[in-house]
Each structure stands twice: as structure tokens, then as C-alpha cells.
What we know:
Elements: E1 3-5, H1 15-19, E2 24-26, E3 32-34, H2 44-53, E4 59-61
Antiparallel strand pairs: 1-4, 2-3
Amino acid sequence: MKVTIDEDRCRGHGICCTVCPEVFDLNDDGYSEVLTPEVPAGSETAVRAAVAQCPERAIVVA
Length: 62
């Protein structure tokens, strides 16, 4: 599973960082970024929860 963030849609709410800090973090500008595009084993459920909770629908899973 791979994950990306649509930088045009992200507004820096940071919910993904709270839900799955292994994969997401805030950059210096206060917007979410992906730490590891290839989702580590065991983090898939947390990434899917982050996708579901993103108010801007900025997280893309492939």
C-alpha cells in the first residue's frame, strides 16, 4: 500500500499525524507530509483511519 497527500487540498489540520504518527508528520509550514510512502506492515489500519478522518480528503491510498 502506498500513500500520498494532495498538497493542494491539505489545510494542516494534523488529524492524520495524530491517528498515524508512524506515517504522517507536519512539515515546517504546518502541513501534513508522508514520512514513508510505502506503508509499513501493521500501519494499514491506522492509515485507512487517517484517510477516513481527513476533513479535506487530501490523503490518497493506492
